[in-house]
Amino acid sequence: MSDILMVSSAPPTSCESNTYLLFHGETLLSNGVRASLYTVALVYCFIGLSAITARLFKSMEEIMKHSREVVTIDPHTKAPVVKQEKVWNYTIADIALLAFGTSFPQISLATIDAIRNLGQLTAGGLGPGTLVGSAAFDLFPIHAVCVVMPRPGSKKKISDLGVWLVELCWSFWAYIWLYVILEVWTPQVITLWEALLTVLQYGLLLLHAYAQDKRWPYVSIPFLRGERPEDWVPPEDASVDYDSIHDTNEALPITVQNNEYSKVPDTEGSSTMDHLVKDTQEDMSWPSIWRQQFIDALESPQSKKMDSVCLRLTRIFWNAIIAPWKFLFAFVPPYHIAHGWIAFICSLTFISGVAYGVTKLTDQISCVTGVSPYVIAFTALAAGTSWPDLVASKIAAERQVTADSAIANITCSNSVNIYVGIGIPWLINTAYNFFVYQEPLYIDNAAGLSFSLLVFFATSFGCITVLVLRRIIIGAELGGPRLWAWVTSVYFMILWVVFVVFSSLGVSGII
Known about the structure:
Blueprint: H1 2-8, H2 31-64, E1 67-73, E2 80-86, H3 90-115, H4 126-146, E3 155-156, H5 161-184, E4 189-190, H6 192-213, E5 254-257, E6 260-263, H7 270-283, H8 286-298, H9 309-329, H10 341-369, H11 373-385, H12 387-399, H13 404-436, E7 441-442, H14 446-473, E8 478-479, H15 482-507
Antiparallel strand pairs: 1-2, 3-8, 4-7, 5-6
């Protein structure tokens, strides 16, 4: 048994410099050329993630705006009153759907890394490194983008500070918990119980956030909720590329044009409205919509007239690059089927496939350059896989009346990264090691990972402090005077650079 453990505890031989990944004959090239090719391929995978993000958001929007009929009795007239009630609670939707969906690239990457390390007593480094690095990317660069998204002079603040504080506390506790199980409880190893407790805390986060939203006694913070519309998003704005997560004007009929939904106002009388509804029912045939997705993917979009030849050529070049991804993701079923659930699940499946390609490319980059996988995870992988988080928060900061969802997506994604993104892969590995070897999961370079957590704590304190000061001085976390919005944005980016530099030096053993 000891011989088996000695063999199993050896690090996996993921460096295959003598095998090809992209094409035959690439092993004859120099390591520098190969590293460049793998990096370009990695960036192309990140472009694929951005392409599937649009369909993921459409499906999430369709899920979130689902409502049901609720019959109540009017206390005065005693007559039954029928009203539409949202199926999803906004707070739960932000945590369980928005944050989980946008964090799925990191979750799937970490899970794939764990599965391919089954049989090894030592955990892989791509998953934890990517998820900790993604937390920093969410907290700093995404805040930096969101703070300048509101129109010049406008302000957007968190309306429900109680829910945000609950989410923030659970987010910080997630990283404190990770440090405790790495350095205090069972240093440098993860047991089955630690992994199981990590996953279960995600359920506690959902329960506590819901309790705070509903203001349950004894378990909620007694903060009054600010003014919050029933529907958080104003009507469609032509300047916005994507639809929002929470929709409005649901009573209006919907027409389908080029696979895009648009609201039709009631301005031409009931007979015209009846005709529009009839046309809508005919146009909602999902085979025709699905076919249109492939047509849209193959056709070049009609762009506005551009006087600059350079801009026109750039647009043509970009459309050529993204066309293969658009055609591939056209296989995702239309997002209006089954309230968006089929499109949501299929989008996550495609994201998992792209994540698998990312893991293979990262292995090869680390192999031919000698750079630690942790360093690559903190930088390139964290930024690339966090793209859906960035786009989701950007859309929320632009479209929504308050800053709740934009900032909640950041804090909740950080919690999801630990409780689910690290918890599930470690649960897979620890369960396998427990039943096969009766051994825990050993964490390679646990000291470097713990050092990164300490750097994250220090820099995140500086980020949250500025958000609180903006709330006190300016009156809002996002927007405000343009100069101060940009100063805040630059400050957040500096914090991210500090985290990346010191974390990379720490996991490399330099400091």
